[in-house]
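Dissemination and training. As part of the outreach component of the grant, students in the summer workshop were shown how a complex can be specified as a set of sequence lines and then modelled as a single object. The example used during the hands-on session is reproduced here so that future cohorts can follow it. Participants entered these lines:
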Amino acid sequence: MRLASKFILIVAGILSVTLALNAYFFLRGQNRILEQQLDERGRVLGHLIALISPEAILGLDFLTLNEYAREISRQHDVVYGVIVDTDDRPLTSYVNGDDPRVRAGLGVDGPAPTHLQPPRLQALIQQLAQLPDVIPAEFPIVHDGHELGRLRLGISREKLAIQAREQLVQQIGVYAAIILFLSAAIYLVFKYSVMHPVQRLIEVSRDLGRGEFTLVPVRSGDELGRLGETFNAMTREIQREQAKLHYQANYDSLTSQPNRMLAVERLQQEIRSAHRQQQRFALMFIDLDDFKIVNDTMGHAAGDRLLTHVSAHIRARLREEDTLARLGGDEFLVLLPRLAQANEARDVARRLLEAVSEPVTLDGREVVVHCSIGIALYPDDGETVEALMANADNAMYQAKKPGRPPICFFTAEMNAQVHERLRLEQDLNKVLARGELQLAFQPIFRAGDGTYVGAEVLLRWRHPERGFISPATFIPLAESTGQIVAIGEWVLREAGRQLRRWLDAGLAPGYLAVNLSRVQLREDLEQLIRSVLSDNALPPQALELEITENILLDDHQQINAVLGRLHGQGLRFSLDDFGTGYSSLSYLRRFSFDTLKIDRSFVAPLCEDAEAAALVRAIVAMAHSLALKVIAEGVETRAQLEFLQDLGCDYLQGYLLSHPLDAEHFTAFLTRIARESQPWGSVAVVAQ
Amino acid sequence: MIRLIEGARDARQAFAGRRRFMLGLLSTVGLALAERSIPTASAAGEPPLVMGIFPRRQATLTTELYAPLAAYLTRELGREVRIVTAKDFDAFWDGVEQRRFDIVHYNQFHYVRSADKYRVIAHNEEFGTGTVAGALYVRKDSGITGVPQLKGRKIVFGGGTDAMMSYILPSYLLLEAGLKPDDYETVFSKNPPNSLISLYHGQADASGAGDILIDLPVVREAMDTGTVTHLGMTERVLHLPWAVRKDMPQALATRIQALLTGLKAREDGRMILARAEMTGFGAARDADYDPHRRIIRKVMPSIDIPR
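and obtained this result:
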């Protein structure tokens, strides 16, 4: 129910009750007065008749008495008038047969007799005297001090009731008009002075809900006026807050450039505009190369300042109508509307390369960064936001690849690669369910005596249609989609189970080195490792976790904490592919590694390249000085083996010694070495 | 010229002859008209005839009932007939005594006592009869079945002691039954109808009244006549008389008698009678009231009855 209706109902209710009470007391007073008047009238009539009746009674003039009775009974408001003697016997016989109460009393519907026998008359007047609307009265008829009889009179309240009813109707009519008038007046006043401002407030609130900031016109200084002012203040505050939120939602706080959301919105607008005007535009994805190094070496604050400078440099090279947005991290988007030719985009991209490459001074040091730019053109490379952004990203991905020019336009070939990648992603989703993954185990031998010590666990994907898919292909993909977490868990659990099977078979599998992805290094890794060990009743030394250098580029504090706890529980760690990454020696000191694995790219040229040999020698010496064991990967020739032995390398791994073996063959391998205890020379031959 | 003078003379002679004829004609018509107008002129010159009606009913009602009759007589007699009544019987009787009425209508007792001053010419016919009887009434539930049972009881009579039908005749009936006035309690009601109504209301054990009283509308309206019954009735005697002063010219008296008795034969006459609550007039003579005289002498032995 609306407020105005409620208000008017309450007012009408109060008015009705007040006026009803007033009417009740007024009518009650009126009734009392009228009843007194009626009583007085009856009294006068009675006294008059009582005064003139003695003559007729004494003269036995019943006709005259009857005339009196007739005259009385025909009076208004008189139901009956009967003269009775001292024994209460009627001396008159007349009754007013026209009176409905008399007819009812006599039980007749039509005309009633006007004269009744004394007993019947006596009974009738007793009956009539009992009626609620009859006031019975008696007046003695006295002559010379002697009572001759009485006049019994029945006075009707009917007229009184009718009058009261009429008055009630009249009062109700008047009061209804008053209530109607007052209610209408109050309603109008309420409507114009309260409901209109409230309605306006509601409309403005709705506008506010729709994001339209309309102010309420304030015309009075009363509570509603103050409410309006307060509401306006609130609206202005919301407007400010919304502008702030809009800015925060659409702009990057670091560079003050549009963020991804606004970039997408502008791209959408540009697509519509270009579609209408049949124009071409270019979308660029810019990614800084090796920006992480700056962050890691100079700190995030310096990295942020670098991004600010780079952003300003890029913006300076763009037109006013061009859009520069920071998509996140070190990734930028540039939107170049109204391009006549694709070459214009290339020119701009070149200018942007130069702009990004401009030296920036950070903390007193001059820093130069480069970038890769991927370009997609509308409408050639896509007509939707998603397509254009994906294609520009792809182009940038291509530009990032080593040996590629830093500016790369999207091509259909890239698209095919993308589709291939997508298909692989979809297949990867089902790889665990289908059981297409297998573990392979490559033995690791002690360099000194060729004794088997353990094996590195390698992952194999045997695709039902495409055959063997290299881990180098699907592992990065799994890392980028996050599937590596589930796959990594499966590898750990499967390796643990396999170890348990070998141990249960009475074999000596040594330890298993399992590669960990950077994505797996989360809080729940500890729980997983504990679960694998406890589920298979393995000692912590049964597992060695291999991590690569690039993992260490991430948040080393968190990683160090996780690794530290696992190391504390007895697990061993090895740093994989040492020398291929940034090879910061500080990592070795910062993390608790047990082993360092020299990448095969160093081992391969070992015998031919003196510099390589010197480098490996230095690595081994450095590792040993840090109390780290060294494993050389990719040992494929006997010369390499001997050279590494001479260098004092602790462990060796490579095709020369053994190819990776599936579980079945590795079981056979373990069985054989347990039986024969042969060094690697003969083993390698068998393994192949 | 001579011819002209002779012509003028002839014309004058013819005109004079014609004038004489016209005057003669006018004289004849005038005499005839004068002759016709003389009796009216002479009747109009006489004083009105005073018609006294006894106060049997209220004065206003009496006037209303008999006004058409008075108008009729006035019209027929060519002489105003003026109705006079009285507030009570004493006043009326005084009028009778003083012979203030030319025509008088009263009860039989009145006539018997005033027979030296008035002579009866007609009597009432009511309910189709010209005679009445006195009656004694009792309530049906009283258990009284014979007049002698009224001894020691209260008997109400209508009017007073000069009421022929309501007192004298019932008293005569009581006497005939052996009950003297001292044998019962006598009370009088205002008028005869009230005596019966008094009985009805239990104010007495018996009522003395005319036999026709029970059929009077005024009584039937005021009571349930089925609750009372006749206990006894007298012989039937002639009804209320109409008399004229004894000194009234016989022709006029006869004329009035004829007019009254002829009413029931006329359409307008019957309406006049109905208005007066009568059914007719019957011719009456003094000897017709001898039975009344006999009864009165019996009931009131001491009263002087003139002839």
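The first helix of chain B runs from residue 2 to 44. Students were then asked to discuss how this feature might be tested experimentally.
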